[in-house]
Design goal:
Length: 134
């Protein structure tokens, strides 16, 4: 049996507002999923990120919502989402956190149960140039 290759989309830029301070937070999302049979276009994954970023958000909630939306829509074997963002509400309050990115992750399915897969995802997200296979 041939299993379709995992898909990874890195560096989806987004712009959102935190629900606590109504202050902008900006960053990048990295999304991977293990397709069962259908593979969706990259633009659709980016669109999911855009849809959830548009709301008043917390970064943690947004990370989970993106993973859940992809799980529900594609029924993949697993989803991994990592978001790194800089919150202006932190830098404006002058607590010395200027430009420090907050990182949140959400793993579902095989990405949750398989630590090797999870580690590979983290490695690819941090790699200097894009990789599309796991
Ligand atoms: Zn805030």
């Amino acid at each position: 049996m041939i299993r379709p290759r995992p898909c990874l989309l890195r560096d989806i830029e987004f712009y959102s507002h935190c629900e606590h301070h109504i202050a902008p937070f900006v960053g990048r999302a990295h999304v991977a999923y293990l397709p069962t049979k259908s593979v969706v276009g990259i633009s659709k994954l980016a669109r999911v990120v855009e849809i959830y970023a548009r709301r008043l958000q917390t970064q943690e909630t947004m990370t989970a919502q993106i993973a859940n939306a992809i799980m529900n829509a594609l029924q993949p074997r697993g989803v991994a989402v990592l978001i790194e963002a800089v919150h202006t509400c932190m830098s404006m309050r002058g607590i010395g956190k200027r430009n420090v990115a907050t990182i949140t992750t959400q793993f579902s399915g095989e990405f949750k149960s398989n630590p090797v897969l999870q580690a590979r995802f983290m490695e690819l997200v941090r790699a200097p140039s894009g990789g599309f296979s796991l």
